[in-house]
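new request in #modeling-help
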Amino acid sequence: MTQAAPLLQVEGLRKFFTVKRGFPNPRTVTVRALDGVDFGVREGEAFGLVGESGCGKSTAGRALLRLIEPDEGRVRFRDTDVLALDRQALRALRRKIQIVFQDPYASLNPKRLVGKALAEPMRVHGLAEGRALAERVRALLDEVGLPPEAAERYPHEFSGGQRQRIGIARALSVEPELVVADEPVSALDVSIQAQVLLLLRGLQDKRGLSYLFVSHDLGVVRWFCQGVAVMYLGRIVERGPLPQMFDEPLHPYTQTLRAASPVPDPRARVTMVRIEGEVPSASAPPPGCHFHPRCPHATERCRVEYPAWKEMGQGRGVACHLYDR
Amino acid sequence: MSAVTGDMAAAPPRANRALRQLLAAFNTNKTSWVGLATFAVVVAIAILAPVLATHDPIEQNILEKLKGPSAEFILGTDGFGRDIWSRLVYGARLSLWIGGVSILIAMVVGSLIGMVAGYFGGRLDIAIMQVMDVLLSFPSLILGLMVVAMMGPSVGNLIFAIALTAIPPFARIARAPTVSVKERDYIEACRALGYSHPRIMAVHILPNIFPEILVMGSLWLATAIRVEASLSFIGLGVRPPTPTWGGMIREGFENILDTWWLSMAPSVAILVVVFALNMIGDGLRDFVDPKLKGERGG
Amino acid sequence: MAEAPALSVQGLTTEFRIGGQWHAAIRGIDFDLGKNETLALVGESGCGKSITALSIMGLIPKAAGRIAAGKILFEGQDLAQLDEEHLREIRGDRIAMIFQEPMTSLNPVLTIGFQVAEALRYHRGMSQAEARTHALELLEQVKIPSARQRLDDYPHQFSGGMRQRVMIAMALACKPQILLADEPTTALDVTIQAQVLLLLAELKQLYGMSMIFISHNLGVVATIADRVAVMYAGEIVETAAVGDLFDRPTHPYTEALLSSIPRVDRTSDTLMAIPGQVPAINRMPGGCRYAPRCALRQPVCERPPALAPVSGSAPTHLARCWVRAGGDR
């Protein structure tokens, strides 16, 4: 695989949401969904973004596509500054970056035939017409393992796994180079999950696709991705290549996540550690290192000072005071 | 070429499915068939008015004035000796025309306003819906009255007045589902696929809200016919001698104690049409109701 | 001879009506739940694991479903034969249940304290003050921080993990002999899941309960179960002590399920996907129900196999497969 300049480079991405809460005296609360996030996806690579709910991983995927407009930061896709594009150029760029959603029930328009849903993007972008268009729809269905008759059916006539295949086919219809996969297998049963993962892996090899793979499942990320970043409360706490990062996690939070992830082996029970506390709200992150209230190694410094990013070599980096020299 | 055939191959199952659902809804709500049949008869009468009318609806015949129902004058004659039946069938034309056109305008404009407000949200949404709420706070008759009083009574102004009163409810009914549909992943997928906003609204949101708009349309058509009649009744409708149902009630009202049938015929006509439209609306509402949708495939 | 089981399910068959015909959603389910034992029912959606739990609780909707055959023996009574009134006395008192979605299982307009106390007042006839005191103890037992202050909070003021703890407190209120846990950690984040699993294991010891733990996640099952029953298409296809099952998965479905899980603890190049889908309830194959998806299919699989001992494993290790078990009969 080429180790050239990254296909996608995200720097200092920030997105705060303001919401009004409370009655009868509403307070304005700022939710720090993304608080300065840096990562890159290399050509042909599957890069994972993991964390628990509310950590901002899904927001990151949407912000780089500008489905949610980020407040600050830089997103470079090849030589394009994504955040500087006007509407027309953005529309063109979206051919290159596509998204696959978690919920295969919600991500397809229930009133549209599958064939139409697949043909529409190609028609809108002027990629194909007439006979060629119908041919490409059939080829797309075949590529994701569905029969040609699927084009004549409605989404509700398919199972969850098949719908996810349709969602993937739709994303592929505009021939993207990067696919943001937002928890694409979390809603599926394990055996179906494996089918879809194998399909995505096959597409990576065959089409040279790159993925930004957003997931909460460390097992899936370890199997599917070559690199990973762990997020906690809107920030990346550790980043590095796989499987090294899950075999020897550096950040205490990565260690916690790793230990809490169940393994289908009764002998692994002993590694189930006692985990303190819950994820705090992103509207009121703890001062200092966000993880310190749950961290077994927390010191006085962790309570006041957010740890700076430290490169640890071999492509790894971590934000934790434990690794200060 | 094959894209076209692809679309055509796609069309029948879709139409069949919607039709099947509509039939199922109408069958669970048998009165909708009655409503539909009644309304069809009224429309037929309006279309066939020149054939069905036994006399000229405008020509006065003072010698035959205020006659009761007879073989020659089925429903009797009015104070100018005009045949009530003939005026009634011609009046149906005008009443349905004014009601239909004004509601069609309200449907198109109102849905568009509601969709735009709901889709873009933010300040635009607030501004648009404030205006709609102001309009909505006037009873439709009062608003219609003001408009016609200002602009003068004519068919065009009447249509404009009625359409104006009906736009806000359509905007409301279009906005609510738009707000919920635009949050769905598939709309986000559309944006990710680079579709333009008008396209997303027309192709992906409109079909989701269209059934609700249709139900509203059938119910508001009844209201429009009533408003038209009311305005004509108080003399702000179409000018005499053109026959409209509201106008006929007013004319009959002057002699209500002696010749009650003059007002009776148009009143019953309005009643029948309003009832019929409401029955259709009930059937359509069951069709739209998600409980009856969601046929399981396989 | 071991002591009598806390619950014995024999030949349980529950049917649902689809298009005027009755179809078995679960068929011939047999298991004994020992005292202090955690039995995991594991399988993918549609395998019948939740139907099994609802049948035991007598919560199968009467209009569409019925228990067509089998016995559910609990304290000398057959729950399948009991009427609603007697079932209600047992439900929530001696057999309690927790659900997957703690968000919708709590009433949003009643305080946590009231909801926990309610079971005690209903089943135990406690006074309000008494029940409240006891509710506080329960909330402390499930480790809700500053429980006393939180007694008068409403469900929406709790996080998902805390709500599941409240659900557990409610289930434990009457010191049940059996706890039915239906995917209790599926909606939770992994760190919270780990906490809740640990809590459940501790409370099971403390209360001397038996537990039926329903899950689709073999990792979670390996963490908490003593014994496992793997379900497929309404039948138990393999059952064994947890160690035996994960060491020697024998039924081809169990094996395939295990190799379709991407593991966090080791690098594996192969990930096996099971082709096809679970058959619909009204289109069950006549013979072995897994046969259409099975790589080891033989002509004999046209006939329905029975649960048979797995040779070379513990006597409690049974599998429903002509090819891998019971080939000799």
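bot summary: The interface with chain C takes residues 298 of chain B (CB under 8 Å).
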